[in-house]
């Protein structure tokens, strides 16, 4: 699994974790960092090994800042001479240059130099924008992820992918920039709306079909505990997701090949998000329906059987996630999906590359005939 | 001298170069690339080792595109299935997000994927913006520099620094992203306005005091040939500048320390550019007056003698460049300079770091007492 590994103790976890903080170490040479997972981590943050700096800038949004902004600022004030906060508008539709520029405005207005440390307090949008701002400000400063959504904890806190959207495509402008530290405070999930918790579960479920059917079976058994936000179950789901992602990313930091399997469900999912207008479907919801589509395409290519597709479909549905894809264009629905997927950055030379399941627990990236893809779209949108 | 080196043959150069293309190789492991220097290189471009790609996008401006755009497009059409062009407004004042976004618009409108290659055809502004667009588009694509100003040929084509300006500071938003190839066609300098040729000479002169007094003496002897745009002299000036910069950058790619010496004259220079409003003084003009100020500061700190300052001043003046700094604020001129320099990204923790000459041919980076800096500003603005 290349350079990535985990220092977490599996035995310990199986017996009684969730009560004490756990760590996943992302091993990327000089860009290595730790993910801390546990309850009530924010108030005790100053006890962690925080990156040194002349100032900290907390980047949050109008939803999360009122909930946890003061707590984080208080903890950081013990460590940094200056702590500033910038609050961005909330939502995927604000993952734009305009919002990003508010971060630069704050940094420059406060006279922050290269030794500033940015703290991303929020979900994936805040994490992506803060990471990209950190990648670009004075050509690169440190940043720390404090993800407050399940999606961000299991997905965007590992991998170093940062970006903003462009009117013509999602995540089209960005950079690879690793955080110095990730703090997953499970207590912040208490205030997460149920719909967003479910959207986060979509990315947890994803790791089963592509890499770990043991996790998948565990999810089938523990889904109710996760939906009830039991911290022991959440800790396991977050940790295993981060570990699997770390293994994949560690083997392929710059997304040359293997890493693409993490996009299972995302090619169709991005088309759904873009086609419906960003923000109408949550990212995880698009991925959920997209996974069903990708599984169905895998079945039609003879890679998995119908029972597997049904098993995936059932778990996704139990999580409260959509299994049916939306109609994007009444006149030529499949054509619209294909058009949107061609502009996706996984389409190289106009050919759409799908992440398919090549037997449960194993993913493969390949193209598929347009006719077959159209059939899948017709089937999955019909119900 | 770290990883950087040059494959150019000094003896050969001294005897008869300028007639045949020369190469400087920038050795940066897997990001290594070549700088080709010679006359009439553009028409023969397809004979070079160009990076592979599904499409090329030429990024140029309204001044340069009409002069060389068709020539470059024609040459690239022999190598790429598709060649597109985007023409940006000309000038430092357009080194903004708005212009950068025109590049992203073009890339997405043409459906360009990760295998697109961007070609920067123009001066430093075009190079910086194209490089930054390449760094960010889909989190990183290849780009080639085709610098058409002396400044860009001797300075911005080596080092991988890319950026745009922010209303509150120059080059505040950017990335380190190395080109795959740099083509310095000396013939494109024929159309360069005299004022911009002189501005480029400022950066050539810079390499003398900080690293190579032999080059400085050569410049004293060959300045008239350079001003007359004799290609043999230009080839030598461009090559030596690239070689020296390559040595410095190779030893310090990410600007941790040594690389800062390349900013000789830039701390004062940036203050001049920002204080006058971007575009009023050319970058090289700010650097020219800034070098006199930094040399004067070095003298007052006892690092060099008055004769050295005068020798530098004379060469700068002969090149047609300003040796006197502008008054930025009639009420508190020195205060205004200090304020502008503190926001510069070389100011860490509020302390301004100056590149000073520690004896001819050797640079040092250090702070200086405000009172002394004020004296220098007063002297150099007075004349």
Automatic annotation (TrEMBL), chains A, B:
Pfam families (alphabetical): DHQ_synthase, DHQS_C
Residue ranges constituting the 3-dehydroquinate synthase C-terminal domain according to the UniProt record: 200-347
Residues reported to bind Zn(2+): 203, 266, 283
SUPFAM superfamilies registered for this protein in UniProt: Dehydroquinate synthase-like
Entry keyword annotation includes NAD: yes
Domain of life: Bacteria
Subcellular location: Cytoplasm
GO biological process: amino acid biosynthetic process; aromatic amino acid family biosynthetic process; chorismate biosynthetic process
EC number(s) stated in the UniProt entry for this protein: 4.2.3.4
One GO MF term: nucleotide binding
Alphabetically ordered keywords of this record: Amino-acid biosynthesis, Aromatic amino acid biosynthesis, Cobalt, Cytoplasm, Lyase, Metal-binding, NAD, Nucleotide-binding, Zinc
Catalyzed chemical reaction(s): 7-phospho-2-dehydro-3-deoxy-D-arabino-heptonate = 3-dehydroquinate + phosphate
HAMAP family assigned to the protein according to its UniProt record, in alphabetical order: DHQ_synthase
Family note: Belongs to the sugar phosphate cyclases superfamily. Dehydroquinate synthase family.
Role description: Catalyzes the conversion of 3-deoxy-D-arabino-heptulosonate 7-phosphate (DAHP) to dehydroquinate (DHQ).
Protein name per UniProt: 3-dehydroquinate synthase
Originating species: Oryzisolibacter propanilivorax
């Amino acid at each position: 699994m290349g350079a990535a590994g985990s220092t977490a103790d599996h035995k310990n976890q199986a017996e009684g974790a969730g009560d004490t903080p756990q760590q996943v170490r992302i091993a990327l040479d000089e860009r290595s960092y730790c993910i801390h997972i546990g309850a009530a981590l924010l108030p005790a943050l100053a006890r962690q090994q925080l990156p040194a700096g002349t100032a900290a800038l907390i980047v949050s949004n109008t939803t999360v800042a009122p909930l946890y902004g003061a707590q984080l600022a208080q903890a950081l004030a013990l460590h940094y001479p200056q702590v500033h906060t910038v609050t961005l508008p909330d939502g995927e539709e604000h993952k734009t240059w305009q919002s990003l520029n508010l971060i630069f405005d704050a940094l420059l207005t406060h006279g922050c130099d290269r030794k500033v440390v940015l703290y991303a307090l929020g979900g994936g949008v805040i994490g992506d924008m803060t990471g990209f701002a950190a990648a670009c400000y004075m050509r690169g400063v440190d940043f720390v992820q404090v993800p407050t959504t399940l999606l961000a904890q299991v997905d965007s806190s590992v991998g170093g992918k940062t970006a903003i959207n462009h009117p013509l495509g999602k995540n089209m402008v960005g950079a690879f920039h690793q955080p110095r530290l990730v703090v997953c405070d499970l207590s912040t999930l208490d205030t997460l709306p149920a719909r967003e918790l479910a959207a986060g579960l979509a990315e947890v479920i994803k790791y089963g079909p592509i890499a770990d059917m043991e996790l998948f079976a565990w999810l089938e058994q523990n889904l109710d505990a996760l939906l009830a936000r039991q911290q022991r179950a959440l800790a396991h789901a977050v940790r295993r997701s981060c570990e699997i992602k770390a293994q994949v990313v560690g083997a392929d930091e710059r997304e040359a090949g293997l890493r693409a399997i993490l996009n299972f469900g995302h090619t169709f999912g991005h088309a759904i998000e873009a086609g419906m207008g960003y923000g109408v479907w949550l990212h995880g919801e698009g991925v959920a329906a997209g996974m069903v589509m990708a599984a169905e395409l895998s079945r039609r290519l003879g890679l998995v059987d119908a029972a597997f597709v049904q098993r995936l479909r059932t778990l996704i549905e139990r999580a409260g996630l959509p299994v049916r894809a939306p109609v994007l264009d009444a006149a030529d629905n499949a054509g619209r999906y294909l058009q949107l997927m061609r502009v996706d950055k996984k389409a190289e030379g106009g050919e759409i590359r799908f992440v398919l399941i090549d037997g449960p627990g194993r993913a493969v990236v390949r193209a598929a005939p347009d006719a077959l893809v159209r059939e899948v779209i017709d089937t999955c949108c019909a119900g």
